[in-house]
Every structure is written in C-alpha cells, then in structure tokens.
Design a protein that fits this description.
With 140 residues, this protein is of the alpha+beta class. It has one domain (2-117): Alpha-Beta Plaits (2-Layer Sandwich). Helices cover 36% and strands 26% of the residues. The chain has helices spanning 2-19, 42-57, 84-91, 94-102, and strands at residues 28-37, 61-68, 75-81, 107-117. Strands 2-3-1-4 form a four-stranded antiparallel sheet. The longest helix is centred in the N-terminal third of the chain and has 18 residues, at 2-19.
Length: 140
Amino acid sequence: MPLLNNIKLALGLVAIIKSSYEGDNMSTFLTSFIFDKKEYDDEFYALDAKIEAFTKATPGFIGMESYTDPQSGRVINNYYWSSRSAMESLMKNVEHLKAKELSGKWIAGYQVIIAKIEGVHNDNMSHPLSEIKMRYQGEQ
C-alpha cells in the first residue's frame, strides 16, 4: 500500500507542475465537505465507492483527509487538488451529481467550502500536502 500512496503522490505532484503550464499558475485547491450524517444504506455505499474511485483516478487529485467528531458525529472531508479543472471534474461527475441530488436521504445538513490554497508549510507530519512546498507570498 505505501508504494501505491507514493505513486498517487507522485502523480499529484506531476499534475501540479503540469498545471503551471495550463494557466493555473501552480494553484492548489481545497474542497472541504462538512456534514451531519443520517443512516447510510446499500445505495449510499455503492454510490460513495464509485465517487471515491473516480476521485482517486482523476489527474490532479492530490489526496484527502477525513475527521469525525466523536461527540457530535459531524464529518469533515478535505480534498486537495492541483488545479481548478481537476476539482471541477469531480463537481461535474455524473455519480457525484446523483449523490448531491439524493443527499437528503443520508445527510442531515452540510457545508461545502472551496478555497484556493496560498501557502503550505509542513514540519515532519504525514499529510496529503506534505511534499508540496508553497511559500505564502501575501498581497503583491
């Protein structure tokens, strides 16, 4: 499994470098999906598996992290992208659109945050962006 993770990381880094030649100026994006879940069923799990497979296969997908608050059960999924176009490919995915349409069955409420990352700093922590060096430049 570590080899697969290294390959995915390498592909993500290649996509970041490539994106600088596609007009994204080495932009990196975060999509944060925060939600309160209801009960999941077989339809949910099948759809979720398809969306996850699509996401991981998307050029420009760097990685994701997930956190569940043990008190409230609220879930936070952060997805990292090497370009706006990579991020938008998930938003336009047929399975993702279907899940969005049916979300009321499985999700009590949600918040989506989309942000352009302007700086990344890491000190000895395993993280989807740990290999990316992006010094914050501030307003220029």
